[in-house]
Amino acid sequence: MDLSHSILKVLAYFDLFDYPVSKEEIWSYLERPVKIGELSAVLQELRDRKIIFLSNGFYTIRDTDALSVRRITGNLKAKSLLRIAHRISHFLYQIPYVRVIGISGSLSKNFAAEDADIDYFIITKANRLWVARTMMHLFKKFSFLFGRQHWYCMNYYIDEEALEIEEKNIFTAIELITLLPVQGNGVIRDFFLKNDWASHFYPNYRIGMKSPDKSVRDSRFKKLMESLFDGRVGDWLDNYFMRLTTRRWKTKEAKQKLSVKGTRMSLYTSKHFSRPNPVFFQKEILALYNERLKKLSVKWDAALL
After folding, report:
1. For a designed S-S bond to 128, which of 42, 97, 161, 171 qualifies (C-beta 3.0 to 4.6 A apart)?
2. pLDDT-derived band at 145, boundaries 50, 70, 90
3. 58 closest CA partner among 72, 44, 45
4. Strand partners, 275
5. Under DSSP, is residue 118 helix (H, G, I), strand (E, B) or coil?
């Protein structure tokens, strides 16, 4: 595919989030391998034709400085929120059966809006996801007393038996390569190996072996609790919590309940994972992206003649 179209596809995707991107970020998200020098030349050509625009070091398909100002402000806010997220991650890791804590969502891309949440990606021990998840969400209830519930958005869980992400598309690939591991016992390396498929979407970006920024030993409490629930009692509890949570979320979906931000509340569950239902936000983003590409392609083709 022509490099100009590949660049424009990157900009169109991030424009869905009102997020201009740097030259290095464009290079990372191109669907074809390319040298950075070649990219620079084509970016300049697209600017000369006024197909794309540069503002404060960031490229966009819209001729406005407002987007770059918004990004710079969000990048600055993300710095302080990331420090909080790292401290919380170290605490959450000490909950029994947790094996990896990572930061996901917009914060993993170094951006935080005024109403930003802290989203976590969590890997648990095999067959203990629901015990770990229940403990974590019981703790989260206390955060509502202090109005800090948005710091504890623990919405994506997998266990060691389900390391490979099922949905393979540009949305999940970007979420995967931008994931920030914070705390873990080494399972994250297996996770990235299982999901090397993301390199097929973005060959310039090498996932490599991302490791948590710091490792700590399991606390005595964590070791004790895991030893107590490693047998049949733990198996029964895990299955019970899975059935209970799934039943509650099916009721919420049937009533089409919305979150405080107005998004559809959903949960996709099984024995080995608990994550947002891709039928809603993920597929909605992909549909919007494809529709936007259809509309913009005609304009781009005419401008590139």
Report:
1. 97
2. confident
3. 72
4. 268
5. coil
What is the distance of C-alpha 279 from the center of its chain? 16
pLDDT tens, position by position, 44-54: 999 999 999 99
Q: What is the DSSP string of 223-265?
A: HHHHHHTSSHHHHHHHHHHHHHHHHHHHHHHHTT-B-TTSPBP
Residue predicted with more confidence, 249 or 100: 100
Report angle CA 249, 237, 128 to the nearest 5 degrees.
85
**Cβ atoms 55, 11 nearer than 8 A:** no
Which SS3 state, helix, strand or coil, does residue 269 take?
strand
pLDDT of 214 strictly over 60: no
Q: Supply the DSSP symbol for 21.
A: B
Separation CA 154–CA 152 (nearest Å): 6
Judged against a pLDDT cut of 90, whether residue 263 lies above it is answered with no
The two tokens of residue 42 are 């084509």
Say if residue 213's pLDDT is above 60.
no
* CATH of range 3-69+285-303; options 1.10.150.530, 1.20.1740.10, 3.30.470.20, 1.10.10.10: 1.10.10.10
Q: Which of 155-164, 210-219, 243-252 has the highest mean pLDDT?
A: 155-164
Residue with tokens 């529709």: 291
Contact indicator for 156, 121 with CB cutoff of 8 Å: yes
β-bridge mates for residue 119, sequence order? 104, 153
| 67-118 pLDDT per residue, tens | 999 999 999 999 999 999 999 999 999 999 999 999 999 999 999 998 899 9
Question: Could you identify the residue written with the tokens 């781009």?
Answer: 300
How many CB atoms within 10 Å of residue 286? Answer: 18
